[in-house]
């Protein structure tokens, strides 16, 4: 008996290869909460790596330049621990933003960031390195206080400040921030 091959499938019955597929029920799109809960294992794995992994080599030397890290939405300085250690190992003077978990933006956010920058920078312009929402905060701070900022570096930050409507976590952001 000869075997038939079609699209990588093998069967001794050629009729099976060309038979129509059974109709299947359409698959419903996952809910926003379903999408978020799928990310939990990744979150915990990344969190553990950030806390315990060895510093990553940085191709440039910081020479004591000041860098402040601003975490993403619902993240704390722990989420940037690996970046913190890596920059410190490369001779940057690094600080966390000092405001705990990033629970969103309100009218006082820029003022609170300004207090932390002034305390850390001691009059020296600082590089702000922000992840996601932290990057938006860094850009807004730099617009309002340009003399205090040497540069802004963003990672995975939206281009628009309309977080609630232009990002995948918009509904979660609205629930958490009210």
Quick structural gist:
With 178 residues, the chain is an alpha/beta fold. It has eight helices and six strands. The chain is globular and about 75 Å long.
Explain the layout of strands and helices:
Blueprint: E1 4-6, E2 9-11, H1 14-18, H2 32-38, H3 40-52, E3 66-70, H4 81-89, E4 93-96, H5 109-121, E5 126-131, H6 133-144, E6 149-155, H7 163-166, H8 170-177
Parallel strand pairs: 3-4, 3-5, 5-6
Antiparallel strand pairs: 1-2
Proportion of beta-strand residues? 15-25%
Query: How many helix segments?
Result: 8
Shape: globular
Q: Largest sheet, if any?
A: 4 strands, parallel
Report what the structure shows:
- Mean pLDDT is 81; it is low at 4-8.
- Helix 5 (109-121) crosses helix 6.
- The protein is of the alpha/beta class.
- The chain has helices spanning 14-18, 32-38, 40-52, 81-89, 109-121, 133-144, 163-166, 170-177, and strands spanning 4-6, 9-11, 66-70, 93-96, 126-131, 149-155.
- The termini are far apart.
- Helix content is 40%, strand content 16%.
Entry keywords:
16% strand, 40% helix, four-stranded parallel sheet, alpha/beta
């Amino acid at each position: 008996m000869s075997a038939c091959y079609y699209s990588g499938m093998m069967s001794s019955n050629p009729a099976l290869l060309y038979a129509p597929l059974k109709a299947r029920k359409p698959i419903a799109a996952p809910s926003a909460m379903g999408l978020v809960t799928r990310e939990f294992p990744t979150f915990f794995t990344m969190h553990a790596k950030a806390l315990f992994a060895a510093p990553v080599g940085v191709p440039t030397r910081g020479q004591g330049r000041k860098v402040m890290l601003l975490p993403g939405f619902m993240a704390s300085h722990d989420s940037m621990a690996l970046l913190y250690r890596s920059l410190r190992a490369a001779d940057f003077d690094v600080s966390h933003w000092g405001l705990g978990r990033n629970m969103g933006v309100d009218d006082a956010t820029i003022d609170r960031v300004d207090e932390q920058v002034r305390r850390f920078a001691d009059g020296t312009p600082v590089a702000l390195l922000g992840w996601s929402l932290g990057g938006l905060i860094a850009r807004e701070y730099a617009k309002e206080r340009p003399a205090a900022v040497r540069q802004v570096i963003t990672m995975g930050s939206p281009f628009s400040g309309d977080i609630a409507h232009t990002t995948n976590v918009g509904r979660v952001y609205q629930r958490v921030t009210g």
